[in-house]
Every structure is written in C-alpha cells, then in structure tokens.
Design goal:
mainly alpha; globular
C-alpha cells in the first residue's frame, strides 16, 4: 500500500513544481517567457537578462497576473486575421488595459534599463 502512495505523491509534487507561483501570482513560466521575449528584442547577454528579469519583477509588482494574462491574450488575438479576432480590436476596456500595461512596462523599463 505504501509503495503505491509514493509514486502518486511524487507526481503531485512534480506537477506542483511546474506551476510554482511567486507571492504576486506570476508563475515561473510566465516570467521566463517574458524574459526570453525581452532578450530577443534587446540582446542575449547576461546584462540584458538581468535587466529583463528586473523589468518583469517590476511589472509583477504593479500589474496583477490575471490582467497580464488578459493583455497577452488580447495581443495574440489582435494579430490574428479574421472576423472573430476583430472583436478584440474594437473593445474599449481591452484598449484601456493594454494602455495601462504599456505604462507599467515603460516605467519598469525606465527603472531597469
């Protein structure tokens, strides 16, 4: 009986480790994704990695993760051609949220870069 419980517990721990979150709610994979994108835009050096990491830390401190997910979804949808995606382009609250994110991102970049 105990032998069958150990693998189940190990799987549960591994699943939980893949979705670890900081106190601000940003999971590790979201931070890594942001840093990789930032590095692709700004250079792939240790210095740029530190600056990009600082930037996402600042964003996470001032922009809730749920809003970040909405912003990322809106960005993807706005780039998709077609009628369904056009619904995301004309929504006022989406534009407002994107503007709010841009302001937070600019402030973070000014502090970190």
């Amino acid at each position: 009986m105990i032998k069958s419980i150990v693998p189940v517990a190990l799987v549960a721990i591994l699943i939980g480790a893949g979705t670890a979150r900081a106190d601000d709610g940003y999971p590790t994979y979201a931070r890594v994704d942001y840093v990789l994108g930032c590095m692709m835009s700004n250079g792939q050096t240790q210095d740029v990695m530190r600056k990009c990491s600082c930037s996402i830390d600042e964003i996470a401190a001032h922009f809730p993760y749920d809003n970040y997910v909405t912003v990322e979804t809106a960005r993807v949808m706005q780039d998709v051609p077609g009628e369904r995606a056009s619904l995301m382009r004309g929504v006022g609250w989406v534009k407002d949220l994107l503007d709010q994110f841009r302001q937070v991102q600019v402030a973070a970049d000014l502090k970190c870069f």
